[in-house]
Amino acid sequence: MLFSPWMNGITTFMYNGRFDPHKQLELLARYGINTFCAPPTEYRILVKENLTKHEFPKLRHCTGAGEPLNPEVIEIWRKHFGLTIHDGYGQTETTLLAANLPGMEVRAGSMGKPFPGHDVRVVDANLNDAAAGEVGEIAVRAKPERPPSIFLEYWKNPDETAAVFKGDYYLTGDEATRDADGYLWFVGRADDVIISAGYRIGPFEVESALLEHAAVMESAVVASPDADRGSIVKAFVKLRAGAEPTEELKRELQEHVKRTTAPYKYPREIEFVDVLPKTASGKIRRVELRKAEAARKRG
Q1: CA distance 37 to 33
Q2: What pTM, to 2 d.p., does this model score?
Q3: Which of 34, 74, 183, 228 could form a disulfide bond with 110, CB atoms 3.0-4.6 angstroms apart?
Q4: 15, 16, 18: which is closest to 275 by C-alpha?
Q5: Within 10 Å of residue 183's Cβ, how many Cβ atoms?
Q6: Distance CA 139, CA 270 (A)
Q7: Residues 129-141: tens digit of each pLDDT
Q8: Domains of the chain by range and CATH?
Q9: Contact yes or no for 220/289 (Cβ under 8 A)
Q10: Which pLDDT belongs to residue 7?
Q11: Other CB atoms closer than 10 Å to residue 35's CB: what's the count?
């Protein structure tokens, strides 16, 4: 979605064509867009373009929405346009729960801090606050007074409703960490987190590492069943134009992830693909890849 000024107010310019990075950058300049909101998938592709050819003198604020935005993408955008992409976090059930609000220090890769009016915690399995840096589930206090932004129930599904309201909290099903200053850092959906040989590995961190490599356009990381480790990390990688999907490149990507994250987090399997499954809003459907991978291993 693109916003541009019109007289004393704001008008919204909607482009309904298929996403094309060249077209997107052209529209930002042509219509003097001043506020730009896009899903991370679009930002990831845009920063692979030659951004030195583009200038947006009227652009003053950028936000990402729908899923976490990789820190390196934020840094590339800031380097070229002098603007920091503000990330945030929310769900259909909650609307906005955390954000990098104007005036806040933005820590690239963080969802920001809890949105005013919301008591957002990172809790363990016993609903106790997780320690700083410890992975837990994002929870919102719903008792004794429920914030008006929290949904009432899943329509005609009392069992699912009961499953997400525990004790005084609404449980989001998303895992994160909180640093010592209260910033929230997304790890992944509970179903997406990979348990490999006892290690908990968030797919987002591995995907971010892969994105730093010059040959990678985008990727999706999922658990692949393994007899010895329970699961291994598998990456589905879409390459940039001109990059060759060779065994040598696979090994290079694996070593890159080892250096960038930790040796135990590297993808033991890499599959090069032409497209990645996505929702209508641009989110990568890891669940689809994970189910296909489980079926392949069973077969």
Answers
A1: 11
A2: 0.81
A3: 183
A4: 18
A5: 21
A6: 34
A7: 999 999 999 999 9
A8: 2-86 (3.40.50.980), 111-187 (2.30.38.10), 194-298 (3.30.300.30)
A9: yes
A10: 43
A11: 17
Can you give the length of the chain in residues?
A: 299
Q: How many CB atoms lie within 10 A of CB 26?
A: 12
Residue 80, classed as helix, strand or coil, is helix
Q: Is the N-terminal amide bond of 225 cis, ω within 30° of 0? A: no
Residue with tokens 């390196």: 72
β-strand pairing of 216-226 with 230-239: antiparallel
User: Cα 60 from chain centroid?
Assistant: 23
Q: Which residue has the tokens 């040598």?
A: 248
Cβ–Cβ < 8 Å for 223, 239: no
Q: Which candidate, 136, 219, 144, 213, places its Cα nearest to that of 171? A: 136
pLDDT in tens, 5-64: 544 455 666 777 788 999 999 999 998 999 998 888 899 999 999 999 999 999 999 999
> What is the distance between the alpha carbons of residues 15 and 299, in angstroms, rounded to a whole number?
43
Angstrom distance (rounded) from CA 121 to CA 41 = 27
pLDDT, one tens digit per residue, over 13-26 is: 677 778 899 999 99
Of the candidates 261, 268, 211, the one whose C-alpha atom is nearest the C-alpha of residue 240 is 211
